[in-house]
Design a protein that fits this description.
210 residues, alpha+beta, 9 helices, binds flavin mononucleotide
């Protein structure tokens, strides 16, 4: 096991791979899951509206039920936790709270707070649902990536999963219409290493230099 304290961000990024075999006896405490999520929510988001929400599943019976609607993927049941990352279609409902808390923390003056609240209130509520879902999905991706890297830094492994029935998920967890499930992330102690995976050559993905 590498010395967890001495790895750089770059090392943690390179160590992360999607792990699909977990030690089912290993438990991550609820408190540690909270710490991971708290740290992950330092991610940037559009106008800092933080349109991500989480459902954390650690109960074995619930994980089994979730596995049944997630293409029977083993890691849904065997990993210590599954974090469902949901998007908030109505992120504009957080505008007041977010900017007031910036003001109360001394990060901005009152005039600036009022200006930013007015500006956000004049755009987000009038954007189409499709645009708001795109914003929430993008921001949820950023927080999801942070979750995976923070977990890796702590010696755990993860796999993000889009392969689950989103309608059934919303029914199973009584998710209100405001929120929509985006991705599941299994988090736990690896029982077998990940497959390695290659990447497209960098020349293929940099379209242009100007
Ligand atoms: C949005 C998204 C959905 C994914 N869905 C699944 C999935 O349902 N099941 C799975 O085993 N892996 C899934 N993956 C993992 C990818 O297969 C994996 O990230 C990719 O092959 C690269 O491998 P690596 O993560 O080990 O670098 C998903 C990844 C992403 C980003």
């Amino acid at each position: 096991m590498p010395n967890l304290a001495t790895r750089t961000v770059s090392e943690v990024i390179k160590e992360r791979h999607s792990v699909r075999k977990y030690d089912p006896a290993f438990t991550i405490s609820q408190e540690e899951m909270r710490d991971i999520l708290k740290e992950a929510t330092t991610a940037p988001s559009s106008s800092n509206l933080q349109p991500w929400r989480f459902i954390v599943v650690q109960n074995l019976e619930t994980k089994k039920q979730l596995r049944a609607i997630a293409n029977n993927q083993e890691q849904v049941e065997t990993a210590s936790a599954v974090i469902a990352v949901l998007g908030d279609k109505e992120m504009f409902k957080s505008i007041e709270k977010v900017y007031r808390s910036n003001f109360e923390a001394g990060f901005m003056d009152e005039a600036n707070m009022e200006r930013l609240i007015a500006s956000a209130n004049s755009t987000y509520p009038y954007a189409s649902e499709e645009i708001r879902k795109n914003i929430a999905s993008f921001d949820a991706g950023l927080v999801a990536m942070q979750i995976m890297l923070i977990a890796k830094e702590r010696g755990y492994d993860t796999v993000p999963m889009g392969g689950f029935n989103k309608e059934k998920f919303s029914e199973m967890f009584n998710v209100s219409d405001r929120y929509f499930p985006i991705v599941l992330i299994s988090v736990g102690k690896a029982a077998a290493p990940a497959f390695n995976s290659s990447r497209l050559p960098i020349e293929d993905v940099i379209i242009d230099y100007k």
